[in-house]
Design a protein that fits this description.
2 domains
Length: about 300
């Protein structure tokens, strides 16, 4: 086994690194803009569905009236069709962008490898290079494409929901959103821990890939020197580190989602509690309460 050690990364956000990565998006600028449009459209219609439920409850269910329900059904059906098209196009475009970016990153990396000195290859394990050129390149392409999708859709959805809730009922909206500061603090903490854990997983995976390559390419030498047991022990150290790091990362990830869902449930409970009191007092409509519950889930 070699003594090669990968550089440690501790920063959560590196602006200079992101500038380099986003340069790969320039050839696909039009596709990125189109993807952003479908993401905003998707978020906008997601916000409209609870408003449609509110309208139906306040105008058809509670009054027991069916006048105009045909037009309501047509509009609702049109929204479903548009949303289906949004989902189809954003998956199609994001998938193509992911493939294009992965190809470009691998091509640029391969060309750069041809320009490096012999000294670099003397110090750097081939397995480590293979991990960078295969799985890591794939993850970069996936993160840039789908990560931007999640960021645009999630960010715009939260902003639009907050605006709609504040417009519908300011007091109830502020009560429901009291869990947001706790949610932000918890997300920052878990983001730090999960990022640290997965960085260690990726680093250990590179070592395992390098050990695989060395074990295969140096099989004759290993047998000649009768080092099978020693190599196995060294390899077990890497796999044990991989196991421990993966379990730790999985634990943090599994804790984060229930914590977020619990806070969301608290927000829903607050909306149901104070909104229910408003319905009894006659200051909040049934449709508004249902919309708030839908937004807070």
């Amino acid at each position: 086994m070699n003594a090669f050690e990968e550089k440690e990364y501790s920063k959560r956000f590196d602006l200079a690194l992101w500038k380099k990565l986003l340069k790969f998006c320039r050839p696909y600028k039009k596709k990125m803009i189109l993807l952003g449009f479908f993401m905003l459209s998707l978020a906008g219609i997601d916000v409209l569905f609870p408003l449609m439920s509110k309208y139906a409850i306040d105008n058809y269910v509670i009054p027991g009236n069916t006048d105009g329900i045909i037009w309501y059904a047509i509009v609702f059906l049109a929204m479903v069709v548009v949303q289906a098209l949004n989902i189809f196009f954003f998956i199609d475009i994001a998938g193509k962008i992911e493939m294009y970016l992965t190809y470009d990153i691998r091509k640029k990396g391969f060309l750069h490898l041809q320009e490096l000195s012999f000294n670099y290859y003397d110090k750097t394990p081939v397995g480590w290079l293979m991990a960078r050129m295969t799985s890591d390149s794939q993850r970069l392409g996936s993160f840039i494409s789908w990560g931007l999708v999640d960021m645009v859709w999630g960010g715009s959805l939260m902003i639009l929901i907050s605006i709609v809730m504040l417009i519908m009922n300011l007091k109830l909206a502020l009560i429901t959103m009291t869990v947001v500061p706790v949610l932000v603090i918890m997300s920052i903490y878990f983001q730090k821990m999960i990022l640290k854990a997965y960085r260690k997983v990726r680093k250990t995976n590179s070592k395992i890939t390098g050990a695989f390559n060395e074990g295969i390419s140096g099989a004759k030498t290993t047998k000649t020197l009768v080092r099978e047991s020693e190599n196995l022990k060294e390899f077990q150290v890497h796999t044990t580190d991989m196991y421990n790091s993966s379990v730790k990362a999985a634990i943090f990830s599994s804790l984060y989602l229930p914590a977020i869902l619990t806070l969301g449930s608290i927000g829903t409970g607050l909306a149901l509690w104070f909104g229910g009191e408003g319905v009894i007092a006659g200051v909040v409509t049934y449709g508004t309460l249902v919309a708030f519950i839908s937004y807070s889930v």
